[in-house]
Hints:
Number of helices: 6
Amino acid sequence: MDWVTLTRHQVERDALPRVCMVCGSSATCCVNESFEHTPDWVGWLYLAGILPGVVAGYFYTKRMRVPCPFCAKHRNHWSLVNWVGGVGWLVGPVLLGGAGYLLTAVATSWTSTAAFIVLGVAAGVGAATWLSILIYLCNTRISATKVTDDDITLQGVGDAFAKAARDLQGGAPL
């Protein structure tokens, strides 16, 4: 995975290479994605309270919409992260309730303490697995590391897309 800096001129005129941002094959579609970036120091303001962090985040977060070229296989690049995150919040309580019901129905010979320990361990393992998958997906997706008024730096793009974007600029660093 590589990174690339795209100028606002390139983005607004849709002058990006017709190469999939993930695998480098020929792009068959463009997905409009809005990227945003907040400076790291804004996060420290939350230590002073919610209000300073929210206000600074509002004023210092930069956004840019990018028409991202993708092949048919990768056109839902960001959907998987959203799906895993959303379904985890919905499925988790249902599974936890079902496991609790099963434990009370099946484990009549167990003490209630043992049943709750098994339920707690199972819930912890399930939550840790779900969070591990979600963190992996979030760290391997294409995201913005910097957004300014003039350009955007994307990380996690495929090497072929980064090279094609640099070649469009005549080999000059983007």
